Amino acid sequence: MIEERQYMVCTRCSTYNQASYILDALNGFVMQETTFPVVSVIVDDASTDNEPQIILDFFNENFAVNDTSVAYQEETDYGIIFYAQHKKNKNCYFAILLLKENHYSQRKSKRPYLSRWQDNAKYIALCEGDDYWINSHKLQRQIEYMESHPRCTLTVHSSYWRKNDELLLLGCQDPNPKDYSVEELIRYGGLYFATTSFVYIPELSHDRPDWRQKAGVGDFPLQIIAGLRGDVHYLPDRMSVYRYESEGSWSQKMQNIEAYA
């Protein structure tokens, strides 16, 4: 198989039955203007709507799938992988994983499948399939800050919260940049910063004490771990949209099922 290149950022995007929203997320990835390579790993968890086809149509239209020096397709025991470089944005790479079985319902982790890209990236960004980025310099701004501040383990920023067609100003909307202490992160709670704003160092993914394993959610413990290991820095720019209680969104799922430990 073609040797993987180094990336500055690996963007992780998990999605399931988000056919109505996924194009917003994909366009947010390819619009990023960066001076460094970024790979967006889109993991479709065996969707039962037409989301996998939407993802592949976007991929085939916008990426150099016939460039055999970079692009490849691979089938594994857990899914089918598609990888290529964007036709115009040469710093943009997509790795699409179409899983054969739904892992969420089986309580199976997808993390092992991401290692070939995540382990070759200096930072990790998050954006679920129903959320999206709206600023083309989002990653550039966050990475520039982290590169110039080695103690920074996580950068976040203000976001719009979208409920149906309404954009709301919820969570942190502080007009000034600042570092947040662990005490502040705990006091304000996990929804103070939208997950779609996160860019962090990969070491946080491997720091998994028992309390984190039992939390039932991922974003709040991640913030606390980041604060314990270094600085959590907030940027006031609104650079993403977090869908709240929309059909099929994570927040709606949490209203209907009990989070598992």
Characterise the protein shown here:
It is globular and about 45 Å long. The model is unreliable at 250-261 (pLDDT under 50). Helix content is 26%, strand content 27%. It starts with 6 loop residues before the first strand and ends in a 5-residue tail after the last helix. The strands form two sheets. The chain has a ten-stranded mixed β-sheet with strand order 3-4-5-2-1-6-12-8-13-11, with helices on both faces. Strands 7-14-9-10 form a four-stranded mixed β-sheet. With 261 residues, the chain is of the alpha/beta class. It has helices spanning 22-30, 51-62, 115-118, 138-148, 182-188, 203-206, 210-213, 219-229, 250-256, and strands spanning 7-15, 38-44, 72-75, 79-85, 92-99, 121-126, 132-133, 152-157, 160-163, 166-168, 178-180, 199-200, 231-235, 240-243. It is built from nine helices and 14 strands.
Please give a quick description of this structure.
By secondary structure, the protein is α/β, with parallel strands linked by helices.
Fold topology:
Elements: E1 7-15, H1 22-30, E2 38-44, H2 51-62, E3 72-75, E4 79-85, E5 92-99, H3 115-118, E6 121-126, E7 132-133, H4 138-148, E8 152-157, E9 160-163, E10 166-168, E11 178-180, H5 182-188, E12 199-200, H6 203-206, H7 210-213, H8 219-229, E13 231-235, E14 240-243, H9 250-256
Parallel strand pairs: 1-2, 1-6, 2-5, 8-13, 9-14
Antiparallel strand pairs: 3-4, 4-5, 6-12, 7-14, 8-12, 9-10, 11-13
Name some characteristics of this structure:
26% helix, disordered C terminus, 14 strands, globular, 27% strand, four-stranded mixed β-sheet, 9 helices, alpha/beta, 261 residues
